[in-house]
Specification:
GMP Synthetase, Chain A, domain 3; 78 residues
Length: 78
């Protein structure tokens, strides 16, 4: 799942080299944290959060095939 979100994020942003994805396991779900360059944050979130929602939908659809739950967190570093 980490590779999927990294590929999608790198396809969207202007600075693909700044994309960082980490995946951690929690009790009943995996947590995927996505960090991008500050200037690309708007591209990842999208208008009214549409792009972020689409990324979460794709990730959840892929996770459902493996009977897993995944949470995508977009990290905003200031």
């Amino acid at each position: 799942m980490k590779e999927l979100i990294q590929y999608l994020a790198q396809s969207i942003v202007d600075r693909p080299d700044a994309v960082e994805v980490t995946e951690t396991q929690e009790d009943n779900a995996s947590v995927v944290e996505l960090k991008v360059a500050q200037e690309d944050l708007g591209r990842i979130i999208g208008k009214q959060g549409r792009t972020a929602k689409s990324l979460r939908t794709i990730l959840n659809a892929a996770a459902a095939r493996h009977d897993r739950k995944i949470v995508l967190e977009i990290i905003d570093e200031q």
